[in-house]
Design goal:
Its EC number is 2.5.1.90. It is an enzyme of class 2 (transferase). Pfam families: polyprenyl_synt. Belongs to the FPP/GGPP synthase family. This protein is mostly helical. The chain has one domain: Farnesyl Diphosphate Synthase, CATH 1.10.600. Helix content is 73%, strand content 1%. The chain has 16 helices and two strands. Strands 1-2 form a two-stranded antiparallel ribbon. A hairpin with a 2-residue loop joins strand 1 and strand 2. Helix 9 runs parallel beside helix 16. The two termini are 17 Å apart. The relative contact order is 0.12.
Length: 331
């Protein structure tokens, strides 16, 4: 199975992505058969390669330089980091499937999957550090990985906190998602020879896009088609993750409804499909989904405003269309 890319959006960097895919296959090889098998299992699971695509588009959009060796290495490193975090997340979540396929931990076990995720993280650092000119990128993605770990820890720490406020929710999604996409676009601008102002604009674009991406992902947990998303509805509810639609609902319902909701939510992994459907109906009635959609769209608009600094090009157009895809996607 090859990467599943957003239809037609990435045609202008198709050749670049092919080279990155070749680099990923090469870098996930190992003399240890189990490492090679688990890495390949995740690599070929149908990912969209969204993060390397964003980095490449940012570099091409800036357009002053494009060292193919450095650009492809950075894009591959980005995807290796993403693969590692997916492996670790699936172990933490005890997820049996992702994108409709068995997760690495379901096939190979938790311990060996965690260790292979560590291998991929180390590989990403090694890949970047091979070129002495990439020290800034090593620092950038070290900071990104630290923030992602902090975000995941914070998310776990506040699970089942039904009084969670917007500030803490934003801290979670800013660390675990937005900083990664901001790092991708910042790296792309740097590799594209961007000025300080252009690099800052690309970083801001990635940041706002990341916030929109995570809110859209949170909506899919309630409203997505499991056949498209690859996971059952209500996974976040069962895991006690309090996201924007639920935060809004709990803050705006009457005391009796809130008490009823909390009683149901406390059932956690025992929640039935009918109970999840009932919770979803209450959230819809109280406007939780609409509030989340509006916030995602506003973040997308803020992201797009940052692109006005750059001249028209196929690459800028692709970033614009990709932002729209992120908010409206069904998986």
């Amino acid at each position: 199975m090859t990467a599943t890319r957003p239809e037609g959006l990435l045609a202008c960097i198709e050749d670049d992505l092919t080279k990155v895919e070749e680099r990923l296959v090469a870098e996930t090889r190992s003399d240890i058969g189990e490492v090679r098998a688990i890495s390949g299992h995740t690599l070929l699971s149908g990912g969209k390669r969204l993060r390397p695509a964003i980095a490449l588009l940012a570099a091409r959009c800036v357009g002053r330089s494009f060292d193919t060796h450095r650009a492809y290495a950075a894009a591959a490193a980005v995807e290796l980091i993403h693969m590692a975090t997916l492996m670790h997340d699936d172990v933490v979540d005890e997820a049996p499937e992702r994108r409709g396929r068995p997760t690495a931990n379901a096939v190979y076990g938790n311990s060996i999957t965690i260790l292979t995720g560590d291998f991929l993280l180390a590989k990403s650092i090694w890949l970047l550090s091979r070129d002495e000119e990439n020290l800034n990128l090593v620092r950038l993605f070290a900071d990104v990985t630290i923030a992602m770990a902090e975000g995941e820890v914070l998310q776990a720490a506040v699970a089942r906190n039904w009084n969670l406020n917007l500030t803490t929710y934003e801290q979670v999604i800013e660390r675990k998602t937005a900083r990664f996409l901001a790092g991708c676009t910042e790296a792309g601008a740097y590799l594209g020879g961007g000025t300080e102002a252009e690099t800052a604009a690309m970083r801001a674009f990635g940041h706002h896009l990341g916030i929109a991406f995570q809110i859209a992902d949170d909506l899919l947990d309630f409203l997505g088609d499991p056949k498209q998303t690859g996971k059952p509805l209500g996974t976040d509810l069962k895991d006690g993750r309090v996201t924007l639609p639920l935060i809004h609902t709990l803050a705006h319902c009457d005391p009796a409804t809130r008490a009823e909701l909390l009683t149901t939510l406390e059932r956690g992994q025992a929640l039935t499909d009918s109970e999840i459907a009932a919770l979803t109906a209450v959230i819809a009635r109280l406007g939780g989904f609409e509030v989340a959609r509006q916030e995602a769209e506003q973040r997308m608009e803020r992201a797009l405003a940052e692109l006005n600094r750059f001249p028209e090009s196929a690459y800028r157009d692709a970033l614009i269309r990709l932002a729209g895809y992120v908010v409206a996607r069904d998986r």
